[in-house]
Specification:
Blueprint lengths: L2 H6 L7 E3 L6 E4 L7 E4 L2 E6 L15 E6 L5 E5 L6 E4 L5 E5 L6 E9 L2 E8 L4 E6 L4 E5 L18 E4 L5 E4 L6 E5 L5 E6 L11 E7 L7 E6 L4 E5 L5 E6 L3 E3 L3 E3 L2 E9 L9 E5 L5 E3 L8 E2 L2 E2 L12 E6 L5 E5 L8 E5 L1
Antiparallel strand pairs: 1-2, 3-4, 4-30, 5-6, 6-7, 7-8, 9-10, 10-11, 11-12, 13-14, 14-15, 15-16, 17-18, 18-19, 19-20, 21-23, 22-23, 23-24, 24-25, 26-27, 28-29, 29-30
């Protein structure tokens, strides 16, 4: 289904401006042309028709994640097995597609090795992590860590995300399974495992996303989203818990670092009455939320972030963001009526 047709059939068509979730709709736009969202220095013009394709030829199901490769192309992962990976140029023009074997394709991470691009795909239905070339040739597959003692069967391993270090080591977040973080070397050999399901500082409820944070070259770390907790957690590379950053009201997906900032898709607002209550969130290098496109203006009281919630019904279950070299943002959405990604143009 094209996004334009979908918008006409849904409440998003009016881009209703909402009050706090306990209140009713207060305002609506007549169309999406020239709509600006975001706050402070991170504001964006909405392009709802970016990347629309013929769904009979190049269909999508859930658009889970996106990355930009070394050629500047935008690479999308969907769990539609006719074409799991769709490659666009930045204008939204179709370049190519590949992949028919990833029914649970969820996490997509770009790795650059000796000048060559590789992809790490997590598939929660296959219970595997798959490393491929940029055009889909399989390099290796990682199954559940059977010898770790933390898993009884592959069905307990439902990986959602990976992140890769400069030396080729990579980490896997088991966000839909037993909630452990597994650390592998570049060959795919298990080095460490930590985390697990629970409420302590070092545990997770829905360890949905993970990224390597090397903005401080002297103190690199891991950022891991505990989505159901509305918390971003920081760990050492050895798996030691360091700190937490609360984001009240926001069910954050994976953290995406671009320059000094961290970007998130927020699947939904915690206390919203409507399920399609997602938005985006941008955090600076001081861990301060500075912009929430589609949501309330971020504010702090006594150094504590006020609860965040959707204010514009623009997004429907946003699941990931990709920031290109022009500072524009692309938004992939889960369970959105099989719509293609949205582009936000930085203004």
């Amino acid at each position: 289904m094209s996004r334009r047709k979908f918008l006409k059939q849904s409440s998003i068509a009016s881009l209703g401006l909402l009050m706090h979730p306990m209140y009713s709709s207060a305002f609506s736009f007549t169309n999406t042309k020239d709509v600006i969202v975001g706050h402070n220095s991170h504001r964006y013009k909405v392009d709802m028709s970016w990347g629309d394709l013929d769904p009979l030829k190049t269909p999508v199901k859930d658009c889970h994640e996106m990355v930009q490769d070394s050629k500047g192309r935008i690479v999308l992962l969907t769990n539609h097995i006719k074409n799991n990976v769709i490659v666009y140029d930045k204008s939204g023009k179709f370049i190519e597609s590949w992949g028919t074997e990833y029914p649970g394709g969820h996490g997509l991470t770009l790795s650059k090795e000796n000048g060559e691009d590789f992809l790490f795909i997590t598939d929660y239905e296959r219970h595997q992590v798959i490393k491929t070339t940029i055009d889909g040739k399989v390099i290796f597959e990682i199954d559940f860590p059977a010898d770790s003692g933390f898993y009884k069967s592959k069905n307990e391993f439902k990986p959602t995300e990976t992140t890769v270090l400069e030396n080729g080591d990579f980490y896997v977040a088991d966000g839909y399974g037993n909630q452990f973080i597994t650390h592998y070397n570049h060959k795919g050999e298990l080095l460490n495992i930590f985390g697990g399901k629970g409420y302590t500082d070092g545990q997770f409820l829905n360890a949905h996303g993970i990224c390597y944070d090397n903005r401080d070259k002297n103190n690199p770390s891991l950022l891991i989203s505990a989505r159901e907790m509305n918390v971003l957690k920081r760990f050492s590379l050895e798996g030691e818990y360091l700190s937490s950053i609360p984001v009240p009201g926001a069910l954050i997906c994976r953290p995406v670092i671009h320059k000094n900032d961290i970007y998130f898709a927020v699947l939904k607002s915690k206390n919203a009455t409507n399920d399609d209550s997602g938005f985006l969130l941008i955090m600076n290098d001081k861990n301060e939320v500075v912009s929430c496109p589609g949501a309330t203006t971020p504010s702090y009281n006594n150094n504590s972030l006020d609860e965040l919630y959707q204010t514009v019904r623009l997004f429907k279950h946003p699941h990931d963001v990709c920031i290109d070299d022009d500072e524009n943002m692309y938004v992939a959405q889960w369970n959105s009526g099989q719509t293609y990604p949205i582009k936000l143009i930085r203004v």
